[in-house]
Design a protein that fits this description.
This protein is α+β, with helices and mostly antiparallel strands. It contains 14 helices and 13 strands.
Length: 361
């Protein structure tokens, strides 16, 4: 997926259309698009007369009704209760998403909102990601989820070592997310102030630009030429990486606008189920990564049927790049009756701007 602040080019699904999708003629495709957009806007079933007024299809309502019946038999549309109008199925939404026009703009007011947000977005990573989830929720009127880069992907900006007492030194490392890690490092009886200072200089020169994962797995650092310094460097590396590993919990997950979900569904039990799921960070992370791993940016209703509370929800996701090799994910969760073009535009633009902010500041 590529994007600019005003326009994005979508590559939604890498899957080859099935036979019935590829054989859907232009008229039926136009009718289906009109039903989807009409239902998204009004939440009311769309009838043939509305399609005749709003689509570019120049045929009679009777012909449109016949085509809508065919679309229903093929699984793209359904009709609730005894209504004469139709609503899209998950298959209908999927066809709509996979055949979006290649260029979709984000509204001018929302473009300005994104620019203004990132012009003021500074500070620690955690605060920025939480604020980004709220921004994305406001842009899409849906719940928004931001999954931060894994802890082991953080890299060291700077590091120093100073003696606290005769047998203890303090290692201070500033990480790429702005956090400051402090570790006590034991000193042997024969470690002089000169060795501590030489070690600090070596850390300051060679720890930066290495991730915690690289340091933990034994990334080869240049030797100092002094055995006592190299031993203390190794102790510092052990102190930093082992403590970080033991403290690392689940991925950082930031949810914005969860209350908006209550306004998008009529069934209270469904709202509670969706909100309950959002509280389980492992499930949320797995869901977002599964969509990304399948090369998609949209998951619709039954496509994540393993999670029953989301049977009537859609998820729009995009990765973002942090510093070094770190990666995170942002997503929008809403009902299947969501404004897909605007959700895709918002997610793409925010992921691009967040990546730029984290990589370049």
């Amino acid at each position: 997926m590529s994007a600019s602040i005003g326009t994005i080019r979508l590559i939604v699904s890498p899957n080859t259309p099935s036979a019935d999708e590829s054989e859907l003629d232009a008229r039926k495709a136009a009718i289906l698009r009109t039903v989807v957009t009409g239902y998204v806007e009004t939440a009311q079933p769309v009838g043939s007369s509305q399609v005749a007024r709003e689509s570019a299809v120049d045929v009679s309502p009777a012909t449109i009704r016949a085509d809508m019946a065919v679309l229903e038999r093929e699984g793209y549309l359904t009709h609730p209760h005894t209504s004469a109008g139709r609503i899209p199925t998950d298959k209908g939404y999927r066809f709509f998403v996979d055949h979006l026009e290649p260029l979709i703009p984000l509204g001018l007011a929302k473009q300005e909102q994104v620019r203004d947000f990132f012009s003021r977005a500074h500070g620690e990573l955690e605060r920025m990601l939480q604020d980004t989830s709220r921004l994305l929720s406001e842009l899409t009127d849906s719940a928004a989820v931001v999954v931060g880069p894994a802890v082991e992907c953080l890299f060291v900006r700077t590091a120093l070592l100073t003696r606290l007492s005769g047998h203890t030194a303090l290692l201070v490392a500033v990480m790429s997310n702005g956090s400051v890690e402090k570790r006590a490092v034991p000193l042997g009886d024969d470690v002089t102030d000169d060795v501590v200072e030489a070690t600090s200089n070596h850390l300051h020169q060679h720890f930066p630009e290495h991730t915690l994962a690289q340091l933990a797995t034994g990334t080869i650092l240049p030797e100092s030429g002094r055995r006592e310094v190299d031993l203390l460097v190794a102790a510092c590396r052990q102190a930093l990486t082992s403590a970080a590993s033991s403290e690392a919990g689940p991925d950082q997950v930031f949810v914005g606008g969860a209350a908006r979900m209550a306004e998008r569904f009529e069934a209270l039990d469904q709202v509670r189920a969706v909100l309950g799921l959002l509280e389980h960070s492992f499930v949320v992370v797995s869901l977002l990564r599964d969509v990304i791993d399948h090369g998609q940016s949209v998951s619709i209703g039954s496509e994540h049927a393993a999670l029953a509370p989301l049977a009537e929800c859609s998820l729009v996701v995009a990765p973002f790049e942090g510093e070094g090799d770190s990666r995170g994910t942002i997503g929008v969760l809403g009902p299947t009756r969501m404004d897909y073009p605007q959700a895709l535009a918002a997610v793409a633009v925010v992921s691009q701007r967040l990546s730029r902010e984290l990589q370049h500041g």
